Amino acid sequence: MHYQIVIVGAGTGGIMTAAQLLKKNSKLNIAIIDPAEKHYYQPAYTLVGAGAFDMAKTSRTTISLIPAGAKWIKDFVSELDPDENALETLKSGKITYDYLILSPGLVNNLDLIEGLRDAVEKGVVYSNYIDPEFTWKKLQEFKGGNAIFTQPSTPIKCGGAPQKTAYLAADYLKNKTFPKPTNIVFATPGTVIFGVAEIRTTLMEVINRYGIKFKPSYTPIKIDADKKIITFKSVVPAENQCVINTDESIGEVISGTSNIEMPFDFLHLAPPQEAPAFVKNSTLVNEAGWLDVDIHTLQHKKFANIFGIGDVAALPTAKTGAAIRKQVPIIVEHIESLLKNKTISAQRYNGYSSCPLVTGYGKMVLAEFDYANKFTPDPKLKQLLIKDSSKEHWRLWMLKKYMLPYLYWKKMMKGINV
User: Fold this and answer.
1) What is the CATH number of domain 2-106+275-350?
2) What percent of the chain has pLDDT over 90?
3) How far apart are CA 52 and CA 211, in angstroms?
């Protein structure tokens, strides 16, 4: 089988790209390869995990989203062969293309943290990335003690999601009484709570308001499901390394030279994530295992007829649907220009991404930024009477819970730029 354009992945990037290409030229011969029968609106998972959104409303059937004129190949890609402009699938065999757009997202790898798989299977660790309804169930059953929220050192979908989960949990638990001392801990491999200065100031105020124990430079490396202990490695830069001060109030104990053990009663963790195996094991990735594209053109650095969108791409910005929303029109312009003029367009991606940081029930901050971590709020927010989106606002909560899902299903998935 041969197609002008093959898109791998029927997620946000794949569907949007196909829809926008076909709006410009309905005669294009496009195939979308993806085995999944359902498409999920994952940005709502944080709200599902806090009892503020219905999980049933996060999904649609894939077939209902495939744009008219595109061929859906319901299959797994097993191997990429860019030298031959081809790829292999499990059931459909070899498929060739003129242009390839890779947007397969990423996958969880529970084995990158010792004991994580065992802890998840035993129901000791909870994750909105895996089962947000289970997170909400266990939050309601929480009886006090250490409630720990953390994330891995690998890139993850929506890097702000783990701290959003912590804020919502803190808000839910703030007026409850428990038989034993209760601590909410947010531990992260990062050195700061957020890279954008304006947003960071607000989030530190949120952390202080809830009394959250903020633990920067903490990388989770091991979980003991039976003893309910998580081990972190201190990742403070060597030049700043000093004696590790343990916090007795949460039962921290030094293990070895730079490890910290912490007991937990509730543990939410974003699992380590990586590119799908067929991408990771191909010749298309960089040393870190991510699709090696130019960060401004999104064109592969070696193969000019291959482009990358979204989470799988080696881009130094947050992996979010908002980033994809800005990437897709650029790739569409490039493909259109290549078909007409044999060269890419002048369009360039500046690293825009957005993270809707829910800070409690009815409150949110909207972080919009570029490659330079410059705060770049959308001027359209003033139409919502929001003067400063770096500050908490109830209208931003309404945007997150109601407007963004509507825009996603009714506009973005239809190929309409928003």
Assistant:
1) 3.50.50.60
2) 93
3) 23
57, 163, 53, 42: which is closest to 108 by C-alpha?
A: 42
pLDDT band at 258 (very low <50, low <70, confident <90, very high): confident
Q: Where are the domains of the chain?
A: 2-106+275-350, 110-269
- Please name the residue that has the structure tokens 């191909």: 282
- Closest Cα to residue 139, out of 109, 110, 182, 181? 182
Domains 2-106+275-350 and 110-269 share a fold: yes
pLDDT by residue (tens digit) across 227-242?
A: 999 999 987 655 555 5
Degrees to nearest 5, angle at CA 226 with 222 and 230: 30
Contact between 113 and 221 (Cβ < 8 Å): yes
Question: Which of 156, 158, 161, 166 is an active site residue?
Answer: 158
Answer left, alpha or beta for residue 154, where phi above 0 means left and psi between -120 and 50 means alpha: beta
Please report the pLDDT score of residue 95 as a whole number.
Answer: 98
pTM for this structure? 0.95
For the segment 157-215, what is each residue's pLDDT rounded down to a tens digit?
Answer: 999 999 999 999 999 999 999 999 999 999 999 999 999 999 999 999 999 999 999 99
pLDDT, tens digit, 9 for 90 and up, residues 34-61: 999 999 999 999 999 999 999 999 999 9
C-alpha 287/C-alpha 281 separation (Å) is 11
Active site residue 242: no
Active-site residue, selected from the candidate residues 7, 355, 367, 404 = 355
Long-range contacts of range 342-348, CB-CB < 8 Å, 24 or more positions apart?
344/297, 344/299, 348/296, 348/297
Asked if 319 and 325 count as a contact pair (C-beta separation under 8 A), the reply is: no
The verdict on domain 110-269 having CATH code 3.50.50.60 is: yes
Q: How many CA atoms lie within 13 A of 256 on its CB side?
A: 8
